[in-house]
Amino acid sequence: MSRRAAGWVLAAALLLVAGGLAWWWQAGRGGGRGARRGTAEGAAGAPTERHAFDLYFPAAGGGLRGERRELQVSESPKDRIRKVLEALLAGPAAAAPASPAAAPRPGSTGAAAPAPAAPSPAGPAGLVRPFPPEVKLGSVELSADGTAFVDLRWPEHEDPPESGSTEEIQRVYSLVDSLALNVPQVNRVVLLWNGTQRITFSGHLDTSRPLLPDRTLLAP
Amino acid sequence: MTELHRLVLLATLLLALPLLVAAQIGRPEAPPRGPVVVLDGRELAVPVTITPGGPLFALKPLVDSLGGQLGSDDGESFNLKIDATEVVTGIGNAIITVGEEIVSLSQPPVRGEGGPLVPLDFLRKTWGTVSGYSFDWRPEESRLIVSRRESREIKVSLDVVHLQGMTTVVLQFPETPRYRINQQPGAVEVQVLADRLAPPVRKKVEDSLVQDVTFAPQLVRIQLVPDAEVESYLLDNPFRLVFDVHRKSAAPVPAGPSAAVADLRSSTRTIVVDPGHGGTETGAIGPGGIAEKELTLVLARDLEARLTQRLPVRVVLTRNDDSKLPLDARTAVANQNKADLFISIHLNSSLGSGAHGAETYFLSSQASDTRAESAAATENVGGAAAPAADAGQETQDLQMILWDLAQSHHLAESQRFAGLVQAELNQALELKDRGVKQAPFRVLMGAAMPAVLVELGFISNPDEEAKLQNPAYRADLVEALVRAVGRYLEASQADRRSTPPLPPPQGAVRSNPGSPNPP
């Protein structure tokens, strides 16, 4: 083989390798189209994928409205529950500002006098985050009968925020509907506050039993 | 140009000419067509108005095509009769009655040039329910497809149980039929609309109050002895029609669970008014700093004063000061006082802007079912340790039916009262009608009587917060509640005097066999 021919073979091999690398890099970034995009390795080693979810945020007028969001999730239902809830607690997309802390109950640890309800700053589509940013997601469990147990944590506040019934329904069913209508393994949701299941969340809804999703709250 | 070229050019022109003419003819000359209504493939001349809330359809031409009689129309309300079902509708009122059922619409009927204009769900809840029509609105085509649903064959099973002087007849269906109950002298009939019945295997009824139960393709007839009277109820999961038959002279009051039913028959009129929240539970806080718990107490005290002033009732407040009271204790007050009505007064708040208006809640079916399930589970655990003898088991079964029946009755009555409250609030005040709703509210769960939670406005809305601080405005709210209570008591009194209560709206009341012990 002449030097010239060998040069051509080398160039072709380099091109093949470069092409393969480019393909691998693109696939790793989820460069495909559609709801399910390319796969990658999760932090725990489980393969993950981009998947579309409808997150139901509190909306102007007192109901809930869905926002389509793509999240990197594994096949594990618990992972999907956690990712959906974390995205919900982070608030609607774009430049939705953080919701102010809701009025705490007097007597709650670290609480002062009840604060007047300020209008929640809304995102571009009139959506707001369901809880103040201080509320974090604790543990998540899923039982064999499809009951998801969700623990919300705000250690400085013994009780959930005071509110009227519509606000309470928006908060609670934002979580319930987003889970039960997105994760097929979830049929109903038990909500806990700082690790404790309560008889009522903010004085209206009975949260001592699992809650089923309520589609009537969803805006068309 | 040669001869040949000219011939080719000519041939081309000749071929092109018809195409041009056809293209001209094919051009749409008529203006774009508006929405149309199609019945069995035939277009109907029904004017349709598109509004932000959805399409509105002219009622009169629909009556001509679908059947029915448009009765009195005084400009503010009109009556429509479909078969034997009366529909009463008010212009501008999203609450209508279909037979004895109170039904809410997505938007109220309005007055058009040629008569009333009604929304799509009006059609579904009238002709759809009564005559079996289906209405398929296709917004992309601006087309309403109307068709008659095919008749279904529905199996029906029969149970007759007699205990302590009362006979309970249960008709069970695997799916909900469209039906009407006709009370006649010496008999009660269930007429099935649009469907056909597959009757159970014929068996002889041997009972001191029920002579026979006969089945026809669209009719079940319960023949009573001459001095018997009947009350009917609806249960769900599975769907059942239940008929209590007893002697006219003295309705027996079986021990245990049926005491709840007996309470409703008694003449006591006690209203328990529950001011929401209290003590450290402030409820919602308005932007001006007003706490829900303060206003609910003021409103409840006003309501107590006006109710006792205007109606022959006793009123009990669950709290009369700024104290914290557990939710279960509130309904316990009502149960201990054997109340006829429980009204929980609240003011609302929402996340996001723009929420305003009043809404009235009664307990959701889901919550009722869950509670019945857990009560039944408790009962079953006890029963497993000591199996009952056959007779004892039968008694327990009937008691469970009766308790279930009482709870279903409360739910149906709660819905009825909630409809009246909402209608009065809508009529009296310039509030947005947020309608009658259901939710699993804890404070409504333990009530052994019709119970509602009324949200009298949003204090998170600055305008409504300001209004609620005005005593005159609050007086109007309270007056509306007093009128609703008066109408409800009057209607229930009339029920007890004359006909048995009609079944509640289909699908609205669900209940599973539960414990004989009230929750």
Describe this structure in words.
The complex is a heterodimer of chains A (220) and B (519). Chain A is an alpha+beta fold and 220 residues long. Chain A has one domain (34-217). Chain A has 3 helices and 7 strands, in the order H-E-E-E-H-E-E-H-E-E. Chain A has helices at residues 3-28, 77-90, 165-180, and strands at 39-41, 47-58, 64-74, 136-142, 147-153, 188-193, 196-197. Chain A has a 4-stranded mixed sheet with strand order 4-5-6-7. Chain A has a 3-stranded antiparallel sheet with strand order 1-2-3. In chain A, helix 2 (77-90) packs antiparallel against helix 3 (165-180). Chain A is elongated. With 519 residues, chain B is α+β, with helices and mostly antiparallel strands. Chain B folds into 3 domains: 36-148, Copper amine oxidase-like, N-terminal domain (Copper Amine Oxidase, Chain A, domain 1); 153-252, Immunoglobulin-like (Sandwich); 266-497, Zn-dependent exopeptidases (Aminopeptidase, 3-Layer(aba) Sandwich), CATH 3.40.630.40. Chain B has 11 helices and 29 strands. In chain B, strands 25-24-26-29-27-28 form a 6-stranded mixed sheet, sandwiched between helices. A 5-stranded antiparallel sheet of chain B has the order 5-6-7-8-9, with helices on both faces. In chain B, helix 5 packs across helix 11 (471-497) and helix 8 packs across helix 11. Residues 250-266, 371-389 and 500-519 of chain B have low confidence and may be disordered. The chains are: A alpha+beta (220), B alpha+beta (519). The interface between A and B is large, with 41 and 44 residues.
Mean pLDDT across the residues of chain A is 79
- CATH domain class of the largest domain in chain B: Alpha Beta
Number of domains of chain A: 1
Question: What is the CATH third-level topology name of the largest domain in chain B?
Answer: Aminopeptidase
User: Tell me about the biggest sheet of chain B?
Assistant: 6 strands, mixed
